[in-house]
Design goal:
The longest helix has 40 residues. The chain contains twelve helices and no strands. 73% of the residues lie in helices and 0% in strands. It is mostly helical.
Length: 340
């Protein structure tokens, strides 16, 4: 199995585990980003309070609205990203080695090359997986009628309805979201928000640049102290967290605009809440909400992103190590089994 495939599968596995752990935070954060009602915006609730409000008014299931397509999207995104990242990085390393032979550079991949590799991988990922995230955003921002507003149920039918609710999918499922997007904007609706998302490839680019730079410095320090260059899972966890924190702070406004474009548009009523495109969204947000509108829910996003990235890096590195150990053992067993 190639190194690119190992990293692709490990990235997908790490992404799924991170997504499962942090998904309720992601749902609340998406709702915070897409909140355009001035009255609701004035009532500032904390992240935990908002989670409790969703559970109380809409039920536990709404914290996990869109989980299935999100897991598919996470696996696809991380798999595609890490697969192409490894391919592009292998090419960059080969180029650096060739340049060293010609007396140019030290043979290592520089910061600018790492940034370019991550950006190219991110662009491929965005173009292939954007439709999945449009559907996820729709499902996360869809609001069920609160339990308090529903009329009293007939006691004789309540047990049947409770049984059906347990075995049937939510009223607003993946197929409903797909149909809604298609009815609203046709096939191109699935690529809404792709422009700010493409610009946002700077997020993983910055994240990986910071991560690999810090990892390289840590290994060099270990080597200079003659302690080896091994890095523990806990250290990988903290390096991933720090890298994601820096990247999130820089690119958050683009994330808010992307979520606004991908959420259901207000066609009738207040035109301030209807966005025709990326530039229109930027201008209306500046005019009606000010620059603070671009940082709605940022504290929630920092907690979610840092935790998810830290878990992702830690799990990915452990899966890559495990896969390589298994491949080495398999190769040894194959050699031993051959007749001498």
């Amino acid at each position: 199995m190639s190194d690119a495939l190992i990293n692709g599968f490990a990235g997908a596995g790490g992404g799924i585990i991170a997504q499962l752990i942090t998904y309720p935070l992601q749902t609340v954060n998406t709702r915070q980003q897409t909140e355009r009602d001035p009255k609701k915006a004035k009532v500032k609730l904390g992240t935990i309070e908002q989670m409790c409000q969703v559970v109380q008014q809409e039920g536990w299931s709404r914290l996990y609205g869109g989980l299935t397509p999100s897991l598919v999207g996470t696996a696809a995104s991380q798999g595609v990203y890490y697969y192409f990242y490894q391919i592009f990085r292998n090419n960059a390393e080969a180029t650096a080695t060739e340049l060293k032979k010609k007396g140019i550079g030290d043979g290592s991949v520089g910061m600018l090359s790492s940034l370019l590799v991550a950006a190219l991988s991110g662009c491929v990922n965005v173009l292939l997986t954007n439709p999945i995230w449009v559907v996820v955003t729709r499902m996360q921002t869809h609001r069920k009628p609160s339990k308090e507003s529903q009329p009293d149920q007939n006691l004789s039918t309540a047990p049947d309805e409770a049984f059906l609710a347990a075995i049937e999918p939510p009223p607003y499922g993946t197929s409903h979201a797909v149909q809604e997007v298609y009815d609203e904007a046709g096939i191109f609706g699935f690529w809404k928000g792709v422009f700010p998302t493409l610009i946002m490839v700077s997020n993983p680019s910055i994240q990986f640049m910071l991560y690999e730079t810090m990892l390289k410095k840590l290994k060099e320090r270990r080597a200079s102290n003659k302690k080896g260059n091994g890095v523990t899972a806990l250290e990988i966890f903290f390096l991933g967290a720090l890298a994601k924190l820096g990247a999130t702070v820089v690119t958050y406004p683009l994330l808010v605009v992307k979520s606004r474009l991908q959420a259901k548009q207000v066609i009738d009523g207040d035109k301030r809440q209807h966005y025709k495109g990326t530039f229109d969204a930027f201008m209306k947000m500046i005019r009606h909400e000010g620059f603070s509108g671009f940082y709605k829910g940022m504290s929630t996003k920092i907690v979610q992103s840092v935790l998810a990235a830290a878990v992702l890096f830690m799990v990915k590195e452990e899966l890559v190590k495990g896969a390589r150990v298994l491949l080495i053992k398999d190769a040894i067993n194959t050699v031993r089994s051959k007749p001498s």
